[in-house]
Design the sequence.
């Protein structure tokens, strides 16, 4: 049994090869671009969350230093302004905690386990642990968890853009190759 | 229903007497109590000073704490002694990498006190209990030489001392900041500290 490609005329074969080449080139180019952009976006997400955590740490330093953890609660309340932040917790030295939880989530989640400073992409979340230190003295820790909606939105947009670009490239390639 | 009765003449006379007595009772007899002992105040006050953004500029080479007291008032002398003893215990500590020095300054009269504070080159003035009647003179001196005033008597903060330690529910220490006074003395406390402090405006 002969393949459909073999049954094509020379012109048809050339057209098919050109289209396949165009498709592969465009898809590879788009994939590389999307990969680079997603990595940049993830880095930016980490950096943005780090800045938020640092701000919370700076503002909660006196509350932790003067053992007035409850007064740190209103600092966390300011996080309402960012709809992607799901939970935030400030721990003091004795691991007592005050927390903020986004309104649409269960309001009494278990406290997250303490970990080393860093940002972690895991369980479809972005999490950051940031120590609160003053004059070399550890006072506590800030934990913030963000959802990945922004990244998902971005991926969705890219999928649509890539589909349109691939389609346009194929149509353009077909028109140009047919005119040869 | 009968209208409320107005105070009888005798009651009014008693009320007037009480009000008159209240206005002539000397300051030290009024509330000048410290809710927390000096050894608890000192670490808190030293930490509070680190939140003064102007402090390094003011202190330059050392944190010099002048402990003001009234030799005629036993509670004032006791507070001064406790303060000096506590400062001796923390003598190895620094504030923003500056060593801590201290001196006692007796308040006898305004002019003498002014001279003593200037000579001490103090940048922090701890006001002991018993000096309630002399706060105006003390504040004049502190503002002249940009000396940050501090106390363990909450009432003094209401009356113009810049920094104090009060008490809040749960018998916990409360940071008291008299904002206009602190600014008059050249202090600029960090907003993050003011957020957790009780601020007198």
Sequence:
């Amino acid at each position: 049994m002969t393949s459909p490609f073999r049954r094509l005329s020379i012109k048809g074969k050339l057209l098919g090869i050109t289209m396949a080449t165009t498709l592969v080139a465009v898809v590879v180019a788009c994939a590389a671009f999307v990969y680079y952009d997603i990595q940049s976006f993830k880095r930016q997400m980490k950096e943005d969350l780090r800045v938020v955590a640092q701000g919370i740490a700076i503002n909660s330093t006196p509350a932790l230093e003067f053992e007035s953890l409850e007064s740190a609660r209103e600092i966390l309340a300011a996080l309402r302004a960012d709809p992607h932040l799901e939970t935030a917790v400030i721990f003091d030295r004795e691991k007592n905690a005050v927390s903020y939880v986004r309104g649409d989530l269960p309001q009494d989640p278990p406290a997250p386990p303490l970990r080393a400073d860093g940002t972690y992409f895991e369980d479809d979340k972005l999490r950051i642990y940031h120590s609160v230190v003053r004059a070399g003295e550890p006072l506590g820790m800030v934990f913030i968890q963000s959802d990945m909606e922004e990244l998902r939105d971005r991926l969705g947009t890219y999928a649509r853009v890539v589909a349109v670009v691939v389609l346009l490239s194929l149509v353009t390639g077909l028109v140009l190759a047919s005119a040869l | 229903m009968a209208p409320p009765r107005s105070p009888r003449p005798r009651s009014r006379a008693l009320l007037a007497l009480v009000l008159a007595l209240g206005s002539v009772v000397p300051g030290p007899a009024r509330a000048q109590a410290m809710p927390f002992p000096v050894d608890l105040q000192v670490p808190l006050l030293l930490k509070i000073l680190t939140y003064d953004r102007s402090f390094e500029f003011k202190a330059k080479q050392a944190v010099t704490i002048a402990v003001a007291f009234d030799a005629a008032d036993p509670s004032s002398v006791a507070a001064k002694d406790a303060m000096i003893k506590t400062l001796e215990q923390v003598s190895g500590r620094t504030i923003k990498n500056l060593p801590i020095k201290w001196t006692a300054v007796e308040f006898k009269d305004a002019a003498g006190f002014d001279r003593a504070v200037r000579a001490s080159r103090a940048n922090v003035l701890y006001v002991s209990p018993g000096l309630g009647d002399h706060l105006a003179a003390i504040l004049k001196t502190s503002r002249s030489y940009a000396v940050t005033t501090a106390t363990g008597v909450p009432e003094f903060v209401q009356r113009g001392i810049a920094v104090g330690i009060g008490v809040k529910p749960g018998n916990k220490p409360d940071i008291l900041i008299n904002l206009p006074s602190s600014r008059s003395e050249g202090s600029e406390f960090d907003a993050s500290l003011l957020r957790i402090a009780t601020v007198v405006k």
About this structure: The longest helix of chain A spans residues 10-65. Strands of chain A lie at 85-92, 97-101, 118-122, 125-134, 137-146. Chain A touches chain B through 14 residues (CB under 8 Å).
